[in-house]
Amino acid sequence: MALVFGFVVGNITGSRAPAEPGGEVTAEASNNNGGGNGPPQQDAERIPVGDSPVQGPNSALVTIVEFSDFQCPFCSRVEDTLRRLRQEYPNDVRIVWKNAPLPFHNNAGPAAQAAVEAQRQGKFWQMHDLLYQHQTELDRPHLEQFAQQLGLNMQRFRAALDGNTHQARVQQDADLAQRLGAQGTPNFFINGTQLTGAQPYERFKTLVDQVLARARTIQPRNRVYAQMVADPVPGSEPTPERPQQRPAEPDPAQVLRVPVGNSPSLGPATALVTMVVFSDFQCPFCGRVEPTIRDLRTRYGADLRVVWKNEPLPFHDKARPAAEAAMEAFAQRSHAGFWAMHGTLFQHNSEPTGLDRPALEGYAQAQGLNMARFRAAMDGHTHGASIDADHQLAQSLQANGTPHFFINGRRLVGAQPAEAFQRLIDETKRTAEAWITAHPGTTRANFYDRYMATADTQVRMTGGGAAAAPQPNQPAGDDENRVYTVRGNPRAPAWGPANARVVIEHFSDYQCPFCSRVGPQVEQMRQRYGDRVRFAWRDYPLPFHDHAMLAAEAAQEAFAQRSNAGFWRYHDTLFQNQQHLERADLERYAQEQNLDMARFRAALDNHTHQARIRDDMAAADATGAQIGTPAFFINGKFVAGALPFEDFARRIDAALAAAPARPGAARPTP
Length: 670
Description:
The chain has 670 residues and is an alpha+beta fold. Helix 5 (108-120) runs antiparallel to helix 6 (124-133), helix 5 packs across helix 8 and helix 21 packs across helix 23 (597-605).
C-alpha cells in the first residue's frame, strides 16, 4: 500500500511544473508542462534540462534543447520554425531554452540575464518574445522598459542586473554548449542529435520524425529522453561523444612578420617589444582590454611600443566610420591626435549614438580638428584604403576576431588578463636582448625591422587539421572548396547569359555598408568576364537593418516595372544613398526614375514582393553556410565579405577552369 501510495503521489507531484525559485507556477508553465500523454521524462546527464525554461509537456517524447542568443538574427529567424513544430506536435515536442550569448554581441549577455530574472519572476517566455521583437533595442533602458511592461518587480529586476546575479547561470549554459561542441547560434540537440543553424522547417521535421519513430519503441516511456541522449539517432553532424580531431589553429609559438608601416603608435621606436593590436572601436572586448594596455605601458615604459591596426568587424556597422574618424585625426594631428580620438571613441562606444556621425563630428570639433577637412575625409572615405590594407594584413595573419595582438610577432588573442600579456612580453623581451647580442650591427633602433625580416610570412597551423591550413585571405576554418547547394531563382535580377559557365549568386542588403563597398568589385567582374559569368542578385535584408526590407521591396518593384535595366538603376541609387532609405526617400527615387507611382506605392503598402524576398533568404539559409552580407556563391563555393577583386578573380578563374564550356552561350543580359 505504501508503494502504491508513493507512486500515485509521485505522479501527481511530478507532473506539475516546478515553481521557479523566488516565483510561482504561472498559468503558462502549468499548461505547457503539466499535460501530455504520460509521466514526465527523466533528465539526461549529458544534456540536462535542469531548471531551464520549457515550452511543451514534460512528458513529450521529443525534447529540443536550443542554445540561443537574443541578439543573433539567425536565432530570431528560427523562432517561427519552433512555433510551427509545437503546433504540429503539441503532445510530442517540448522546447528547452539554454543561453549561449556570443562574445561579439555586446547586449546579448545582459539580455540573457534579464530573461533569467524574468524566469525567476514567472515571465520567461513573455520576456523571450519581447527581446526577439526588439533585437536592436537590448540596452539597459530598454530591458527595464520590457520588465516594467511585463509587470515584473522592478526593484528585484534592477538589483539582479546591477549585481550580475544570473551571470553564473548564463555561463553554466554557455559552458554546456562548449562541452557539446555547439559552436555558434542557434544550435539544437533533438533528443541528443545535433542540428546547427536556422535550418528550414523541413530539415527540423525530418529529424523530429526520425527521433519520434525511435522514441515510440522505447519503454518505459519516461526513459525516452535519458536513453536517446545517451544513444542518439545518427545526424548529419558528429555528436560530441565521438572522438573528434582537434581543429587546426594558428601556432601561438610562431613568430610572424607584422610590419608597423605608418600606423599610429605609442612608445619609442627603440622599444625592445612592439605590440601590434588589431582592434575595432565598436567591439566591447576591445574597449575592455584598453585599461590593461595602459597598465602595460606604465609597467614596461620605454621597453614597450603599442601599434594600432584597424580591423572593423563586418557586423559592427559603426566601427568603420569610427576608424575613418580616428585616421583623419591622425592625418591632421599625427600620433597625439589619433590617440586622443581613440580614447574618446572607446569612452563612448557603449552609448546608443556614441559612434554615430554627429557624435564623431562633435569629438572632432572638441579636439580642434579642421572640420572642413574632417567632413570631406568622412564623406569621401579618404582613409578607406588604409583601413582596407590593415584588414588585408589581418586576414593574411589569420587574425580573426578582435582584439588580436602580435607581440614581436607572437600571437595573443582576445581581452586576456594582464598576466597573460606580461608572460609573453617578458619572454619576447628576453629573446630580443639575446637576438641583439647575437647579431652584430643590431641596435634597439633597428631591432624590430631586422627581426621581422627573419620572421615567417605564412601562418603555421597546429592541431589535427593542420594540413588543411587556409590560404591567406581565407578565414580560418573555412573550406574554400566546399560546394553548397544553392536553390536558384530564375526570376532574379541578373546580368550575363543563363547558360554561362560560372553562376554567381550574390546575397546582399541595401543598408549594409560592406555590401555597398563591394560594388566596384562586382563591376570589375562584369567588365573582365562578360558572357562567361552570370551574376544573380538575391535579397538578404538583415533583421537589425530597419530599412533594408522595404528598400528590397522597392527595388523589386522597380524590377517588376522596368525589368533588369530598371532594377539595376534603382539598386545603384539605393547604395549611393544608404543613409536615406526611409519610405519618403524610396518614393522620391521612384519618381525621379519615372516609375508608375500608383503601382509603386501599392506594392510597398501591400508588401507585394516580400514573399519573393523571404524566399531568397530561405534559399540562403538552406545552404547551411554561415550567411552574413555580402555573401557570394561562385558555382556553389561560398565567399563571405567584401574581399578585394583579386580574391574574387582567383575563385572565378578556378571555377572557369573547372567548368566545361556550354554551347550556344547567349549575349550578356542588358
